[in-house]
Amino acid sequence: MYKIATLNKISSKGLERFSDKYTIVEDSAAADGILLRSQDMHNMELPENLLAIARAGAGVNNIPIEKCSEKGIVVFNTPGANANAVKELVLTSILMSARNLNSAIAWTKTLTENVPKTVEKNKSQFAGHEIKGKTLGVIGLGAIGVMVANAAKDLGMDVIGFDPYMSVQSAHELSSSVDLYEALDLILPKCDYITIHVPFMENTKELINEKRLNMMKEGVCLLNFSRDQIVNEEDVLKALDSGKLRKYVTDFPTDKIVCVEDAICIPHLGASTEESEENCARMAVDQIMDYLENGNITNSVNFPTCNLGVCTSMGRIAVLNQNIPSMLGKITGILAERNINISDLLNRSKGDLAYTLIDIDSEVDEEELKKALNVKGIIAVRVIQ
Ligand SMILES: NC(=O)c1ccc[n+]([C@@H]2O[C@H](COP(=O)([O-])OP(=O)(O)OC[C@H]3O[C@@H](n4cnc5c(N)ncnc54)[C@H](O)[C@@H]3O)[C@@H](O)[C@H]2O)c1
Ligand SMILES: O=C(O)[C@H](O)COP(=O)(O)O
């Protein structure tokens, strides 16, 4: 029986996919697999027997990836599963800020009497503009950025974008009328709206700072549905104060930004729709089950994609190792010494890490094999039989 711990509320549409080989446990210390959303795992002690973590969502900056890789814990996410939900909230936010809706609604709610007359007398203070013909800059053209760019085009906006690492799939899905730029700094002076859709990593920390804010048009609206640390908040506060930024829409409010009038603060709702929560949970559960039962890896952020289908041979050996020379030779050599015949083998690498799946024609003693494979470069060995 595999033990699964959930660190956040996970949609029942996902959890009900677990077969009777699984049990949901309260105590994560005993877990083979962990399912979570945004719970911060950085200060958590990783369970001794933990094999996999599945993030039902996109961002994995709440998970200590490097530590997981060292311990042979495969970390999954669910690319694209919540992208439509985020796209819809980004579009809502662009329209909301164009028409000053947050301030207008808040003001209307303060009225107590003579409402119709007061509304007509004062409404001009909230007059806005149309987004048709305005320029939107999209930073990061992955699952969300592409959807936002295409939808904004459909609403009549001019859309320009920047993504130096765009995938073939994104390039294929992006509308051909979106102009791509080779440097972020080139798009900044052209935009009326700028929306950020990059992961939070060392090289995206404070991607938007004073220097870049100064390059933007006067009165631009900045939208951040990625992570708070991608912008330098002090610099954003100054830009709001000076009027350089007309609005800052953020899905990641902080103590400092929450009370600022022209900051539109949303309580991290980008992925919080029924549909998105279900999509993410289904994908996360399917991926973790396929890994635990068959050793297959799909959508891992630390180990390579590797799939030998459902295991139908006598056994399957799964080896997580460093991507260094002669690993495969050592593994197959140790099997040959034990007279174990290999019926299928797949070896894939991703950066410094590699993964080898080997189907074998006879049973093997897992503990004895683990001892034999306790050599430099091997991170973890598992036998599925
Ligand atoms: N607000 C929410 O609820 C919510 C929901 C989903 C995702 N997110 C955040 O949005 C991020 C993006 O999600 P996604 O599903 O589009 O991910 P994704 O991986 O599909 O796309 C990210 C894109 O950013 C690009 N990129 C990376 N570094 C870049 C840089 N320095 N400059 C420009 N582009 C760069 C990548 O090439 C990729 O195309 C997530 O990592 C997460 O932090 C937030
Ligand atoms: O990166 C993500 O997928 C989002 O930030 C969603 O986070 P959540 O699952 O906690 O809503």
TrEMBL record:
Name the family: Belongs to the D-isomer specific 2-hydroxyacid dehydrogenase family.
InterPro entries named among the record's database cross-references:
ACT-like_dom_sf, ACT_dom, D-isomer_2_OHA_DH_cat_dom, D-isomer_DH_CS1, D-isomer_DH_NAD-bd, NAD(P)-bd_dom_sf
Q: What is the lineage of its organism?
A: Bacteria, Bacillati, Bacillota, Clostridia, Peptostreptococcales
Keyword presence, Oxidoreductase:
yes
- Indicate the segments forming the ACT domain, all copies: 316-385
Q: What is this protein's name?
A: D-3-phosphoglycerate dehydrogenase
> Which superkingdom heads the taxonomic lineage of this protein's source?
Bacteria
Entry keyword set: NAD, Oxidoreductase
Enzyme class, first EC level, given as a word: oxidoreductase
What EC number(s) is this enzyme filed under?
1.1.1.399, 1.1.1.95
- GO MF entry, a single one: NAD binding
> Catalysed reaction(s)?
(2R)-3-phosphoglycerate + NAD(+) = 3-phosphooxypyruvate + NADH + H(+); (R)-2-hydroxyglutarate + NAD(+) = 2-oxoglutarate + NADH + H(+)
Q: Span of the secretion signal?
A: none
Which pathway does UniProt place it in? Answer: Amino-acid biosynthesis; L-serine biosynthesis; L-serine from 3-phospho-D-glycerate: step 1/3
Q: Which organism is it from?
A: Sinanaerobacter chloroacetimidivorans
Give a short account of what the protein does: Catalyzes the reversible oxidation of 3-phospho-D-glycerate to 3-phosphonooxypyruvate, the first step of the phosphorylated L-serine biosynthesis pathway. Also catalyzes the reversible oxidation of 2-hydroxyglutarate to 2-oxoglutarate.
